[in-house]
Design goal:
- Helix 1 packs parallel to helix 7.
- The protein is globular.
- It contains 15 helices and 22 strands.
- It is an alpha/beta fold.
- A hairpin with an 8-residue loop joins strand 18 and strand 19.
Length: about 425
């Protein structure tokens, strides 16, 4: 049996951030990862017909995030500001810029009046049930479901109020070479400080006591440590016992399971398509659509796959599609059918035949994160019960079991890589001091 100071379950952003901190403090650390790669819900990849590196998971640095940017600068990883035009295509018509939400002053007034939390669904039903509010309600739901990947029946109105009131200019960055550059830099740092990584080992059982913790994997390998840090996605915590990635605790941890179910975990399907050229820049498209999309960056539509973005200002012929929230949870089909849906959506938006799009398509890949056995969803969101159960979830068990991940955010921005990195770092500091 292998014995170390710390076992970290999961080699995603949170696990790597924690391993970096603990190993630098001289702790003997091993990492156990179910996948055959590091990164978790960060998945930078090349191949499978693509001429360029693509991002299957997290892609953008959402603003001037201190920890992420600090690490990028420390490791000398180049990143750049993304820019371009925002477009909408609804009911057959293009419009430039963000959708103007109707009755916005009334919406802000009702949000200011909210003191006790209610679900978004109840908020809408209570204040905006009239037919004159249909478009505004669609916009609110589009934001909650599309951006937060949330279910309006569970999503917190107070959290939405905070997001709305703190809305800043939309600063986004791309990492040159993808988020995988940061993951590999973190791993190299960990490796240089003695961390050992075991891939393709699914943790199945964790036996803990007042003196030590034993971790058993699917290949019946046993590891022992003084402390264990668990960084698996919230979807794994919410999974049934028979799920491939489910972990059994001995003794059980019913309060952690209860807390996990109280938090929200959203669903996302991401479509990445590479074409022979950036067809949306062609004059023929300008003629058929009646608008100049030469600099389009983000496009929001009423198509089956509603949201699309380019790699602006990079002149890449890659288009990325996004389907999130309950629609993504219910979305089914094989890879071929999903690609067909993506092409049908582009055909609808750009008025180009599917046959023409297919002939220009070099490669396509669909990342259905809900179907991923080691994620079972995309990222977390704030529910009505989140504040009550968050502290319960984060609390260590007997100074032996610790918990981190983007869902266990302590102010870094729920659902982001920044949250995962920050959670891992802060818990690792606690572990080092215990």
């Amino acid at each position: 049996m292998t014995k170390v100071d710390v076992i970290i379950v999961g080699a995603g952003a949170s696990g790597l951030s924690a391993a970096r901190e603990l190993s630098r403090k001289g702790k003997k650390v091993i990492m156990l990862e179910a996948r055959d790669r590091i990164g978790g819900r960060i998945h930078s990849m090349k191949g499978e017909g693509f001429d360029v590196r693509i991002e299957g998971g997290a892609e953008f640095v959402h603003g001037n995030l201190p920890l992420t940017l600090q690490l990028l600068q420390e490791y000398g990883i180049v990143y750049h500001h993304v820019e371009g035009e925002i477009w909408n295509f609804r009911r057959g018509t293009f419009s430039k810029g963000y959708d103007v939400i109707q009755h916005q002053e009334l919406l802000e007034e009702k949000l200011r009046d909210i003191k006790d939390d209610i679900s978004i669904e109840e908020f809408i039903t209570t204040h905006f049930s009239g037919s004159q509010y249909v478009e505004m309600v669609d916009a609110i739901k589009g934001y909650i479901e599309g951006y937060d990947a949330a279910d309006t029946a569970r999503a917190s109105t107070l959290a939405f109020k905070e997001e709305w009131q703190q809305e800043q200019p939309w600063e986004q960055y791309h990492i040159n070479g993808g988020y995988g550059m940061l993951m590999h830099a973190l791993w190299q740092d960990c490796h240089e400080h003695g961390v050992k990584l075991f891939l393709s080992e699914v943790v199945k059982e964790i036996h803990w006591s007042a003196s030590h913790v034993e971790v058993i994997t699917d290949v019946k390998t046993s590891y022992e440590a003084s402390q264990v840090l668990i960084t698996v996605p919230l979807g794994v915590w919410q999974a049934p016992a028979e799920a491939e990635a489910a972990i059994a605790f001995f003794p059980p941890l019913p309060k952690k399971t209860e807390a996990a179910y109280a938090l929200g975990f959203g669903h996302v399907v991401k479509f990445v398509l590479e074409f022979k050229e950036a067809f949306w820049k062609n004059k023929s498209v300008q003629q058929t659509t009646g608008v100049d999309l030469h600099k389009f960056f983000f496009l929001f539509s009423d198509a089956v796959v509603p949201t699309w973005w380019t790699q602006e200002p990079n002149p890449s012929p890659v288009l990325t599609g996004w389907l999130a929230g309950p629609a993504a949870l219910q979305y089914t089909g094989d890879e071929e059918q999903m690609t067909q849906d993506a092409l049908s959506s582009l055909s609808h938006i750009f008025n180009i035949s599917i046959e023409q799009l297919k002939s220009d398509l070099l490669a396509a890949r669909v990342f259905h994160w809900t179907n991923d056995p080691y994620a079972l969803g995309a990222y977390s969101y704030s529910t009505l019960e989140a504040e009550k159960f968050m502290q319960q979830f984060m609390k260590p068990v007997g100074q032996r079991l610790f918990f981190a991940g983007e869902a266990l955010d302590r102010g870094h921005g729920t659902g982001t890589v920044e949250a995962a990195l920050g959670s891992g770092l802060e818990v690792a500091k606690e572990m080092g001091n215990s």
